[in-house]
Amino acid sequence: MWKQLPLVFVQLNYRVKYLQVKPIDKKRLLAFVNHYVTHTVRFLNKFAGVCEEKMSRIELQIQRLEISLNILEGKVSMSALITFVISAVVIYHVCYSSTLFLA
Fold first, then answer.
1. Which of 4, 20, 90, 95 lies at a 20 to 30 A Cα distance from 10?
2. pTM for this entry
3. Is the dihedral of CA 61, 67, 71, 74 positive or negative?
């Protein structure tokens, strides 16, 4: 179940006296920080680009849905208007004429 650690890792279990450790060279430290910052910025730029692309696709889909919704609302309102007009014509002919005529 547990993987046995090599003997080297078991023996390195001692306390480090940080006051006696030499500092990292400034150029090397600067190289590490520069490498970290460069890779982080590259990752964030790529991530932002992917997010913008996905959001623009979603925005386009939303615009298409809004257009379809407007078309459907127009059809429904036109259908309701046509139904209302036909009802009015039928009521008029029933009330004021003896024959029903729809053209």
1. 20
2. 0.52
3. positive
